Amino acid sequence: MVDGKEKLRAAIVRFNRTRARDVAVDERPGCVYGLLTRDLADDLQAGLAGVRAELAELRRLLAGIFVALALTFVGVVVDLVLRAAALR
Q1: Domain locations along the chain
Q2: Cα–Cα dist 36/43, whole Å
Q3: Could you state, in chain order, the average pLDDT of each consecutive group of 10 residues for the chain (88 residues)?
């Protein structure tokens, strides 16, 4: 785990690098804390993307379970109907 001081040092180095280059569109952060805030926002976006992927996977799993239960129910009903018809 990286502590806060190391994150701040790395952000200052990256901030100074962004100030040194010329860009056509100014995407440079206004301060070091802006850069850290952007990093946190990017981390949150990545985390949310992971959660979305897991939710999609859970939805597919639940749909599969529902279909399996529905088919099992249909199979039991058909079995009961056939047994009842055989007893007559």
Answers
A1: 4-87
A2: 10
A3: 80 75 64 85 93 97 97 97 89
